[in-house]
Amino acid sequence: MGNGAMRFRKLRIAWSVAWGSVAVLLCVLWVRSYEKADAIYRISKTEIQTQLISYLGVISFRRTNLHVTELSIPVKPHGWKYEVRQPVSEFGFSRFALVWNAKELKFRAPCWCGITLATILGTFPWLWQLKRFSLRTLLIATTLVAVGLGLIVWMSQAD
């Protein structure tokens, strides 16, 4: 395998498959988030609560120091737990949020941001090969663009 183009081919394929799987799982989570809210959370021995929630097309990460907050109820530490809830729209809900202070770290973004990031990371190792492309690559790219545009038109007419 002295050819430079073939050098890390299997590693690039594995990288792309991994990020492609993440993108597909995020798509499934995105669709599911309008029916059910999925929550994964834990409370550590140092009274730090970590939670990851998907609801209404948004993924939310929150890490709260319960010792600093004014909770009168003692908390019991536990490992990771999974819960399915009904999605509840918050008053003043915004799709993007970032809060970082002594009490908590909170980050919230739409699911499509994670899907876009996973797609970019999955295609990143192949970018330098864009100089050389075949007719097959052109047909695949054209098909993907056509499917994407068809989905956009279909979604806009569904409203």
Description:
- The chain is an alpha+beta fold.
- The chain has one domain.
- It has helices at residues 9-32, 111-123, 135-158, and strands spanning 37-43, 48-55, 58-65, 78-85, 97-100, 104-110.
- Strands 4-1-2-3-6-5 form a six-stranded antiparallel beta sheet.
- A hairpin with a 2-residue loop joins strand 2 and strand 3 (58-65).
- Helix 1 runs antiparallel to helix 2.
- The longest helix has 24 residues, at 9-32.
- The radius of gyration is 21 Å and the shape is elongated.
- 4% of the residues are buried.
The succession of helices and strands, N to C, reads HEEEEEEHH
Largest sheet: 6 strands, antiparallel
Helix content: 25-40%
Give the beta-strand count.
Answer: 6
Calculate Rg over CA atoms. 21 Å
The dominant shape is elongated
**Unreliable segments of 5+ consecutive residues:** none
Count of the domains: 1
Q: Count the DSSP helices.
A: 3
Q: What average pLDDT do the residues reach? A: 79
Strand content: 25-35%
Largest sheet strand order: 4-1-2-3-6-5
N-end to C-end Cα span:
53 Å
Assign the structural class, choosing from mainly alpha, mainly beta, alpha/beta, alpha+beta, or little secondary structure: alpha+beta
